[in-house]
Design goal:
By secondary structure, the protein is α+β, with helices and mostly antiparallel strands. About 35% of the residues lie in helices and about 10% in strands. The longest helix has 22 residues.
Length: about 60
């Protein structure tokens, strides 16, 4: 199934196009990914999320 609705990353308007006709920014699919209890890659996404939050925390402490 292909998602048709897209959301602008800049002005948050909905459109069917890959480029926002209002502001010219790129759009993304606003729907979450499908959930599967047999998700083989969940542990990798959790690790990546933890790593990203740790990196943001370090970057904030360095800039202060």
């Amino acid at each position: 199934m292909k998602w048709l609705m897209r959301k602008c990353t800049q002005c948050s308007r909905y459109t069917l196009k890959s480029i926002c006709p209002n502001c010219g920014a790129s759009t993304r699919i606003p729907h979450p990914a499908k959930f599967s209890p047999d998700d083989k890659y969940a542990k990798y996404r959790v690790k990546a999320s933890e790593l990203a939050s740790t990196t943001e925390t370090i970057a904030e402490s360095v800039s202060d």
